[in-house]
């Protein structure tokens, strides 16, 4: 049973359900101990769960911080790629975690990209070819107690702009 704070009006589509299922079985993600519970059809909302188990607990019996960090890793990048489409390039650029409280119970997190955030990203990329965005999320327990806060920095660019910059950098490197 998922906590009430993860309730949403958005719906999963067959396509997003299939993507979520495949991601949960993808070895690199499966190994984090995380599980994707929900992926909205518009890719603007994702819910994750992280349980304490043989794969995720540390020496002192709490959820390993590396599990919290890695289980939350690719989602803003993936969401943006799926929403913005092939005309854009999106990369995870940086991440940081701040631990608030040791976790011995199941944790949850919710990713949400609003229409306003997406419009702002599109406008910034249209104006300058690229932008960076910092996204914040929290791992919380069923009582909404925060156990960790994570920041993810994403780089977003127009694909043509990105390719042009990449070619310029490579070209100048070989002209020495």
From TrEMBL:
Pfam families (alphabetical): DUF4442
InterPro entries on file: DUF4442, HotDog_dom_sf
Record protein name field: DUF4442 domain-containing protein
Organism in which the protein naturally occurs: Fibrisoma montanum
């Amino acid at each position: 049973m998922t906590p009430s704070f993860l309730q949403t009006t958005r719906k999963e589509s067959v396509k997003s359900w299939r993507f979520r299922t495949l991601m949960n079985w993808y070895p690199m993600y499966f190994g984090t101990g995380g599980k994707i519970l929900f992926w909205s059809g518009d890719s603007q909302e994702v819910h994750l769960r992280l349980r304490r188990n043989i794969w995720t607990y540390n020496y002192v019996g709490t959820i390993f911080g590396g599990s919290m960090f890695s289980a939350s890793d690719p989602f803003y990048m993936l969401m943006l790629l799926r929403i913005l489409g092939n005309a854009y390039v999106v990369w995870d650029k940086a991440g940081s975690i701040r631990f608030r409280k040791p976790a011995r119970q199941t944790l949850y997190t919710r990713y949400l990209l609003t229409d306003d955030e997406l419009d702002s990203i599109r406008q910034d990329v249209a104006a300058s070819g690229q932008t960076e965005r910092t996204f914040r999320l929290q791992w919380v327990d069923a009582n909404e107690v925060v156990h960790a806060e994570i920041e993810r920095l994403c780089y977003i660019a127009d694909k043509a702009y990105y390719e042009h910059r990449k070619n310029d950098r490579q070209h100048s490197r070989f002209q020495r």
